[in-house]
Amino acid sequence: MIIRPAAEVLFEKELHALAKADKGQKPANWKLSPGAVVDYIIGGKVGKLTIEPKYIGQRRLIEVAVASLATDRALLLSGIPGTAKTWLSEHLAAAISGDSSLLVQGTAGLLEESLRYGWNYAMLIAKGPSKEAMVPSPVLSAMENGKIVRVEELSRITADVQDALITILSEKTIPIPELNEQIQAKEGFNLIATANDRDKGINEMSSALKRRFNTVNMPLPQSLDEEVEIIRFRVEKLGRVIGIPDKKSTDQRIKQLVLVFKELREGVTSEGDLKLKSPDTTLSTAEAISVMINAQALSGYFGKDGISDRDMASSMIPAIVKNKDKDLSVWREYLEKVMRKRKDFKGLYEACEEEVRSLYL
Ligand SMILES: Nc1ncnc2c1ncn2[C@@H]1O[C@H](COP(=O)(O)OP(=O)(O)OP(=O)(O)O)[C@@H](O)[C@H]1O
Ligand SMILES: [Mg+2]
Asked: Which of 22, 277, 285, 326 is most deeply packed, by most CB within 10 A?
């Protein structure tokens, strides 16, 4: 079994059912109408089949994203780490093009040819420049086939290489001077970029490039309950995929974790009566999901009777204290000033105290 099948494979049944029932008007080369794409992302029902929600949050946000892809403007999903930018872009590509595999991973070392085309040098030397000797980038393949291409972490790419996208997005062509021709994008081609605005080592986009995008800012979950819901849902799914012994993580644990993360992230207690310092790392929903999966693995393989306070402590401390010099004092302050005073956190407080002592002191 494959560890992580592509979205269009994993949700083939849902996509098929949605396509069959789809009465909406489809933009050229789209597999589904915009309305059906939104249903696929937000979830719902088609006949008897339940469409699982992929993104938990505002429907309007997804409508805006999908509408933008139906125009000639590209879509930029921006926001802090762990707000489901990558996740959403994969599902959008799967629903719109039936193919989420056209992907460029942005890195600082990325060269322009990864956005345009390269050459198979053995063939180039043997036969000279020809279409066969050309190695198309995912962007070029998407243009030729009228599909969605994804550019991950756009802001990690150096600014001059990023700018190669300007002509692609405005002219919808890639000139190939070596062959004296140009490749023109088919209808259905568009681009989804993700960028996070918080990390170190990111490059500002030029305003010329920015103008080619509709930007959707991915928000953190609006409420405690919404965040609990996202985590519960994802942990259940992921737990199944990685085959961890099925001990249901209790809602209680998720709620505790979400509260701690939220308070640390916002720098204030939920009662609003105490200002706190925040650790350096962004304590995102994605991070909370990893903590819960980790705690579940610890309890599933080595514990009994579900997730213990110690499992939680061992899993959450490394997520919060990433930089010992800065974060440890923040965390200890939180333990003493907040967690210690809460009756229902007694067990967790003690486990965290002990873990901190054995790890760092
Ligand atoms: N609102 C949400 N609905 C559903 N899943 C969510 C939501 N927010 C976060 N997640 C989950 O968080 C996990 C990580 O998301 P993802 O990797 O897409 O984040 P990202 O925004 O691309 O982060 P980064 O900037 O670090 O690349 C995914 O498993 C996703 O399911
Ligand atoms: Mg990402």
From this structure: 285
